[in-house]
User: What shape does this take?
Amino acid sequence: MIRPDRGLGLALRYVAAVAATLIFIFPIYWLFMISFKTPDEIFASPPVWWPESIQFANYGVLFKDGDVLTIWNSVVIASVSTLLAMVLGTMCAYSIARYRTGGNFFSDWLLSNRMVPPIVIVFPVFLLFVKVGLVDSYAGLILLYTAFNLPYVVWMMRGYIQDIPLELEESALVDGCTRWQVFIKVVLPMARSGFFATAVFTFVFAWNEFIFALVLTRAEVTTFPVQVTHYFGGQSNFWAKIAAMSVLGTVPIFIAVTLLQRYLVRGISLGAVKG
Amino acid sequence: MSALRPPFADRNFKYLMIVPAVTTILLVGLFPVIYTLILSFQNVDMMFEDTSFSGGKHYAALVSDARFWESLLHTLIFLVVALPAELILGLALAWLFLDRMPGRQVFVALLVLPVTISPIVAGATWRLLFDNRFGPINQILGWFSDEPVTILWTVDPFYVYPAILAAEVWQWTPFMFLLLLAALSNVDRSQIEAAEIDGAGFWRRFTKVVLPAIWPVMAIAILIRALDLFRLFDVIWALTRGGPGTRTETFSIYAYILGFQQFETSYTAAMSFVVILLLVISITIVLRRMEIDR
Amino acid sequence: MGRLTIEGVQKHYGKVHALKGVDLDIAEGEFCVFVGPSGCGKSTLLRCIAGLEEIDGGRVKIDGEPVEGLRPRDRNVAMVFQNYALYPYLSVFENIAFGLRARKAPEAEIQTRVARAARMLGLEAFLERKPKELSGGQRQRVAIGRAVVRDARLFLFDEPLSNLDAQLRDGMRAEIKRLHQEIGKTTVYVTHDQIEAMTLADRIVLLRDGRIEQQGAPLDLFERPATRFVAGFLGSPQMNFIPCRVSNGALAFEDGRTLPLPRPAAEGRSLLLGLRPEHLSRAVDGDPRPRLPVEIDLVQPTGARTYAQFRLGGVEATAELPAHAVERPGARIDLAADMDRAHLFDPETGAALRD
Assistant: This one.
C-alpha cells in the first residue's frame, strides 16, 4: 500500500518474510526436536540439529512415571474454571451491555481487577486458602482462575453482545420470553462464536498460568507449567522431560489457536481491534 | 394489578445477572487488596501471628530496603528495553506482511505461535537454547568467531539481561505484530496516496498519516504489554530465578521470595500495597496522557 | 377484543421529552397508523404500547385493563420490526413458532398454527430454510408470520417496509392491508411514509414533537388539515403555502396578483394560502374558476403528470398539470385555481381557518 509492488520488491520482501518466520519458529522447533532425541543426541556438543530418528521414549517416561497427571490436572482446572468464568462472565456482560448496569465506573473497576499483578493477589489469597483448607486442591485453583479470568470474559462478551441487533431481543420479549429466556434463547445463540473464542482464550490463560499454580499447589494438583519447573535442577537439568512435558502442554494450545485464527486479534487485544 | 406485576426475577434481572460475577471478583479480587492493607500494619511473619498494630514500621523499612528498590529498577529496565524493542520489531514485521504475498496467512499463523505458549515453557525453551555446551546459540555465535563460544548466558551477570530480554522479546513481538498488522490493514489507502500526491516523503507520510491512524490500537497494545512487563515473573523464574544473586530480581520475584520462602508476611504485604499504589498512580497518569477512551 | 386506550402518556429520555401527554382511543379491529417526521415520537409511542419502554406518566389500557406495569410478554401483543428481527440460527418454521414455544404451546397446536400462517403468507415452500436463504420480501413475510401465528390482542408494526425496495414495498403494503381485512385484528402501524399511511389506515394519527397534531380518517386529514403542518405533511408534491393579505375582500399577494377569498376573513389580515398543486390546472375558455397568470420557470415531467413551478407572492409554487401542458420554462400561461378546495392558515400559529 505504501510502497509500490514491483517484482524485485516482492522477491526481497519474500526472502525477509521467510527469514523472519524461521527465526521466530526456530525455538519452537528446537523444543520439539529435543523431545524426540535420544540422551546422546541431547547432550552432544556441538548440538545436533536434526535427530537420527524420531523416537518417543521421552514421552514414554512421562507416562510411566505418572508425570502426565499434571497435564490432566491442568485440563480439569482450566476447563472447569473456564466454564464457570464463561457462565458468570457472560451473564454479567449481558447486564452491562444492555442495561449499562453500574455505569462506566463498574466496568472500569471490573477491568482494573485484571491489571493488578498476580503476585499481589496470590499472597493474601494463599493465607486465606491456608485457613479454609483450599491449598493444593482443585477447588482453590478453580476459584482463583475463575475470578482472575472473569474481567476478561465480561469485557470480551460485552463487545460481542453489543454486536447483536437489539431488535432480536425486543422481538423475543414481545413474543413472550422472560428476560432470562431472552438471554438463553437469543443472546447465547447469537453470540456463540464470540463465546467459544472467548472460552478458548480463557482456557489458554488458565492453562499457561504459573504464579498462582506455583503458590497454591503442592503435590496433589500440580499443573503442567509447575511440573516443567520441577525438572530444573541445580546441577543437571532433565532436558528430555522439560522438552517432552512442554510439548505436551503446548500442542493443544497451538491447535486451538490455529482453529481460532479469525478471532485471534480481537481476543488478545481485549476487543480493542475487531480484526 | 399486583397479581400481574412482573416477578422479582424480572424486575431485578440486571442486578441478579451480575451478582455471581461480582461476588467472585470481590472474594478473590477486592478481598486480597484489603487484607493486604490490614496485614501491612500488623506484625505477622513465619514465627509469630502477631496481629497487633505495628504502625508504619514496615513501610518505613521498605524505604531503606535497597533490594526492593533494585527490584523495581530491574522491572523498569525490562520494561523500557523490551517494550520499545517489541514495538519496533512488531511494526517492522507488520509492515513486511502488510501487502499480499503467496502464503501470507501461513506465515502469520506461524509467527503468532510464540504468543500462545506458556511463558514458563518459553523460558524453559530459551534455557535449552542458551545452554553453554548443548545449546545452539553458542554454536551459532561460534561460526562467526575463531574459537568456541562458551558464554554462560543464565549465570554470567553480563549476559543474563540480554538472555532474558531475548526470550521476552521473542515471545511478545508477535503480539505487537498481530495488533499492528490489523491496525495497518485498516488505514485508509486513499489518504496515503493523497499525501504522496501532495509530495510528502516516506517519513512524513508515516508520522502524519499512518501513525495517527494506528495510534488507538498501538496505545492499547503498549498498555497491555506494559502491564504484563510490570509483573514479569515466569520467564525469569524459568531462566534465572532472579539470579545471579539478585541481579535479575523483579518486584514480583522479590515479593515471592519474601512472602513464600522467607514468610515475611506483613512486610510483603506492605510492599505489595506500595506497588499497587505505584501502579494505580502510573496507570492514571499514562491514561490521561494517552487520552484513550473506551 | 383489542381495544387500546392511551391516556396522557409521558416519556422522557434523559433531557429529551419524547412524549408530551398523548391521548388516544383505538377501537377493536381498527387499523391505526402513526405517522410523522423522524423524532416525532411515533416509534416511542409504539414501544410504550408494546412494553419495550416504560412510560413516565399516564396510562396504557388494553381492553380496559391497565398494562403499563406489565412485561411485554404479559401484554399479549405481537410486533413486527423494521429489520425483520429473525433469528439467523433458526429455520423459518422455528422462527414463526418462536412465540408459541416461548409460551409453551402444545406441539400439535404449534404445527397447525404455523402451517396456517405459512399458507396465509405463501411461505409453505420455505419452512425448512434459514432466514439468510430468503429474499427481503420473504423475510418480511416471515416476520409478519411470527406475529400472526399468535393469538395476540394487538398487532404492532414498526416501519416494517422501510428496508424493502420500492416495488416490493407496494406489493407488501397491499398484502398487509389484505391480511388485516382477513384477520380483523386491531393494528397499530408506524411509518414515516405518508403514502403508506394514507393507503393502509382506517385512522391516521399524525404526531409532531411528542404530541398528536391531528387524527382522523386519511381523507379527512388530507382534505381538512387542522394545521399547516398536517397539510404540508400529507400529499405529494407538497401543498403550496403562499403568504398573502386580505384586501378589498380578496386575497392579495405581494406581487399585486389576487385570488378570491375561499372563506370569510377579516380585512387586512395576513394569511397563508394553502393550495395543492393538483388544484391548479391550465385555464380553458369558459372555465368559471378564478384565473392566475403565471410565468413558468421550471418544468419537471414525471410521465403522466408534469410539475410546473412558478413564483407567486414571493415564494416558489408548483402546479400539477397534464403531461404536455407546458413544454419549456419561460412559458406564460393562465392557471385556474380550485379555490373551493383551498385552505387558509394563520401564519403565526399555523392553525387552519375554519368556517
